[in-house]
Design a protein that fits this description.
Layout: H1 2-41, E1 47-50, E2 53-57, E3 62-68, E4 71-76, E5 79-85, E6 87-93, E7 96-103, E8 106-113, E9 118-125, E10 127-134, E11 142-155, E12 162-173, E13 189-201, H2 209-215, E14 218-229, H3 239-247, E15 251-261, E16 264-274, E17 280-289, H4 291-300, H5 306-319, E18 320-321, E19 330-338, E20 341-344, E21 347-351
Antiparallel strand pairs: 1-4, 2-3, 3-6, 4-5, 5-8, 6-7, 7-10, 8-9, 9-11, 10-11, 11-12, 12-13, 13-14, 14-15, 15-16, 16-17, 17-19, 18-19, 19-20, 20-21
Length: 358
C-alpha cells in the first residue's frame, strides 16, 4: 500500500515538474518571440533595436532575460541618435508576470547627432534598476520606478565629469482608461512623477569660480513632484496633439520642487502650460534662503551684471517674510515664465531659446 502511494506521489510530482518546465519554456519562447517582433516593428518608425545575443535563466519560478550588448538607433528629422549598453537584464516572476524589473548596471553610451551639433556622453553606473507594476483594479493603473547609484556622466567637450551619488524617479499613471486608445494621459491628474537626486558633483566652471567656492562643488539634493494633467497622445507625436492638449486645459503642476546647495535652499510650487506659440509659460511661488549671497556671488562671477544684481537686492526686502534676527531670511519670491523670459519679480533672470517642436 505504501509502495503504491509512493509511486502515485512520484508520478504526481513528475507531472507537476513536467508541466512547470513546459510552462517555463513556453513563456521564455513567448518572451523571445514578442521582444523580437516588437524590435522589428519599430523599424516602421525609423528605430533600429538590436542585441548581440539573448539568454534566459531563472528556472523554474522566474524568467530572467539577458540581452547582451543591446543597441538602439533612432533616425528622425535629420537627427541620428543611438544608445549602447554592455547588457540589460529583464526579470519577472511566474506568479506576477505583469511586474517587470529591468537592471542595466555598467557602461552606457549615448550619441545624438543634430543638424549643427553633436552631443555624446558616456555613463557609468554601479546600479541601474527599473520596475513596472500594473494595478488593473485600482486607481493607479501603472507604476514605474527607477533608481541609479554612483553615476558618472561624461558629456562631450567637458573637461570634468558630472557625478551623481543616487538618482530615483517614480512614475504613476492615475488614469481611467480613455476612449482614445492612442492617448496615454486621459483627462485629470493622469501622470505623476517623483524625482529625487542626491549628491550632484559639479565639474569646475571658470565662469562660476566664486559661486562654487562659496556654495561648494556638490549639490546636496534636488527633489520634487510633477503632475501632468490632460489627455496627451504621443503615439505618434505631433504638434497638433500638443495644441489639442493645450486647448483642453492641459498643464504640468510643480509640487515641492526643492534644491539644497550649501547655504542656498529653494522650494518651488507652480504651474506650467503652453502659450499660443507652443512655448512654456507659468507662474511659481518660490521660498528661498540665501538668495542675497547667491546674487552677490553671481555678480562677482559676472553672470549677473551690476544693474540686475542691484535691482534684485533692492527688491528683496519686499518679499522677506518674518525675518528672524541673526538668521537668514526666508524670502518668498514670485517667479514667472512668459514669452520665454524667466523673471523674479520684475527682473528678467534669463531668456530661454525657442522650442522648435518636430
Amino acid at each position: 500500500m505504501r509502495s503504491k502511494n509512493f509511486k502515485i506521489l512520484i508520478g504526481f510530482l513528475f507531472i507537476i515538474i513536467t508541466t512547470l518546465s513546459a510552462f517555463w519554456f513556453f513563456l521564455t519562447y513567448q518572451a523571445q518571440t514578442r521582444i523580437t517582433d516588437w524590435a522589428a516593428s519599430q523599424s516602421n518608425q525609423n528605430i533600429q533595436i538590436s542585441w548581440q545575443d539573448i539568454h534566459f535563466t531563472g528556472y523554474p519560478f522566474k524568467i530572467r532575460m539577458l540581452l547582451e550588448r543591446p543597441e538602439i538607433r533612432l533616425i528622425r528629422y535629420n537627427r541620428k541618435s543611438y544608445w549602447k549598453s554592455s547588457s540589460v537584464i529583464i526579470s519577472s516572476s511566474l506568479f506576477s508576470p505583469k511586474n517587470v524589473v529591468v537592471s542595466a548596471p555598467g557602461s552606457h553610451k549615448i550619441n545624438i547627432n543634430l543638424p549643427k551639433n553633436t552631443f555624446h556622453a558616456a555613463i557609468e553606473a554601479e546600479e541601474v534598476l527599473a520596475q513596472s507594476i500594473n494595478f488593473p483594479t485600482k486607481k493607479i493603473k501603472r507604476k514605474y520606478d527607477s533608481k541609479m547609484s554612483n553615476l558618472i556622466i561624461s558629456p562631450n567637450n567637458w573637461r570634468d565629469s558630472i557625478g551623481i551619488d543616487n538618482f530615483m524617479i517614480e512614475l504613476s499613471d492615475h488614469s481611467v482608461i480613455s476612449t482614445n486608445k492612442k492617448a496615454i494621459h486621459p483627462i485629470g491628474k493622469s501622470l505623476s512623477s517623483k524625482i529625487e537626486i542626491k549628491g550632484i558633483n559639479i565639474p569646475s566652471f571658470p565662469k562660476l569660480d566664486k559661486t562654487l567656492k562659496k556654495l561648494g562643488t556638490k549639490v546636496e539634493s534636488v527633489s520634487g513632484k510633477f503632475h501632468l494633467k490632460g489627455e496627451l497622445g504621443l503615439r505618434p507625436f505631433s504638434v497638433d496633439q500638443l495644441r489639442s492638449w493645450r486647448d483642453k486645459g492641459g498643464t504640468i503642476e510643480l509640487d515641492q520642487i526643492k534644491l539644497v546647495w550649501g547655504s542656498l535652499i529653494a522650494e518651488t510650487n507652480g504651474t506650467l502650460a503652453l502659450d499660443k506659440e507652443l512655448q512654456f509659460q507659468g507662474s511659481f511661488a518660490t521660498n528661498i534662503r540665501g538668495l542675497d549671497d547667491v546674487v552677490t556671488l553671481l555678480e562677482k562671477d559676472q553672470v549677473l551684471n551690476r544693474t540686475k544684481a542691484s535691482f534684485i537686492k533692492l527688491a528683496l526686502p519686499i518679499f522677506i517674510q518674518n525675518p528672524e534676527k541673526g538668521a537668514q531670511s526666508l524670502i518668498r519670491v514670485p517667479m514667472t515664465l512668459q514669452n520665454r523670459h524667466l523673471k523674479v519679480g520684475p527682473v528678467t533672470l534669463a531668456k530661454f531659446p525657442k522650442i522648435k517642436w518636430n
